[in-house]
Design a protein that fits this description.
omega-amidase activity, Nit1/2_C-N_Hydrolase, 6 helices, Nitrilase/N-carbamoyl-D-aminoacid amidohydrolase, C-N_Hydrolase_sf, seven-stranded mixed β-sheet, 15 strands, CN hydrolase domain-containing protein, single chain, binds 2-acetamido-2-deoxy-beta-D-glucopyranose
């Protein structure tokens, strides 16, 4: 009766060292994905912007189609050769029809078939006069849907980086039955220590679900210095596994029974007061 037993989920977060050489990045991603698979990982995650340096100036140059561009072909082959689910971080995508550029995550099953895509929904724009100006919307367009994918382990919600600061997508995913939210992301060295882990733990604890993040490794010679610290947090808000800023693979066996166990101990789900506030998973925008 093996088919009735849910497959054990072994997660691997690949904190990749990203360079300005797209082909080299794809090759490095591939070797790390295959390494993770050889150690038993069957759900593998790559970082935000894993094939290109992070920065609005780079997006137009590195952007490609997610129908038949070199990166999606490489990702599909990696998933298939690894025989694993692959949450393919994100790449700058150029839409073949409208020419607009998106920050897009593509997701594959162990046969290498694309089973979902997420275009970063919340774009990060800041302008503090005299201090810092970073406007993703100068080159990127926002996605217009939330993303959940079906896997052998259950449903997973996917967001990208700044999407993690907004509680709603995770809340909706949890109420719609996802066991995890996964966020490829690249916080910087100021917001990283302040918020990166805190936000993951908040999303996990509020929703009593797993949350994982996958950052690029830090490159002090690049214009953007990523925080790193790719991590996995459990449904009780506990950090299961993490790393520092260097290239690394973070592994975690996800015990999905922890969700039911924790929800039984602290039954938020049954004790909500939807007579006092709305259930946002049931409110149509
Ligand atoms: C990181 O981003 C924050 C938020 O936008 C900003 O205030 C800060 O100056 C940035 N830090 C670095 C090191 O660029």
């Amino acid at each position: 009766m093996a088919s009735s037993v849910p497959k054990a989920c072994k997660l691997a977060l690949i904190q990749l060292a990203v360079t300005a050489d797209k082909e080299a990045n794809l090759g490095n991603a591939r070797s790390h994905v295959l390494e993770a698979a050889s150690r038993g990982a069957n759900l593998i995650v790559l970082p935000e912007c894993f094939n290109s340096p992070y920065g609005t100036g780079y997006f137009p140059e590195y952007a490609e189609s997610i129908k038949d561009g070199p990166s999606v072909k490489a990702l599909s082959a990696m998933a298939k050769d690894a025989k694993a689910y692959l949450i393919g971080g994100s790449i700058p995508e150029r839409d073949a029809t409208d020419g607009k550029i998106y920050n897009t995550c593509t997701i594959y099953n162990p046969d290498g078939e694309m089973i979902g895509t997420h275009r970063k929904v919340h774009l990060f724009n800041i302008d503090v006069p005299g201090k810092i100006r970073f406007q993703e919307s100068e080159t990127l367009s926002p996605g217009n849907k939330l993303t959940q994918v079906d896997t052998d382990f259950g449903k997973i919600g996917v967001g990208i980086c700044y999407d993690m600061r907004f509680p709603e997508p995770a809340m909706i995913a949890a109420r719609e039955g996802c066991f995890a939210m996964i966020y490829p992301g690249a916080f910087n060295t100021t917001t990283g220590p302040l918020h990166w882990e805190l936000l993951q733990r908040a999303r996990a604890l509020d929703n009593q679900m797993f949350v994982a993040t996958c950052s690029p490794a830090r490159d002090m010679s690049a214009s953007y210095h990523a925080w790193g610290h790719s991590s996995v947090v459990g449904p009780a808000g506990d950090v299961i596994q993490t790393t520092e800023e260097k290239q690394d693979i973070v592994y975690a066996d996800l015990d999905l029974s922890k969700i039911a166990e924790f929800r039984q101990n602290i039954p938020l789900g049954d004790q909500r007061r939807f007579d006092l506030y709305a259930d946002i998973s049931k409110v149509n925008p």
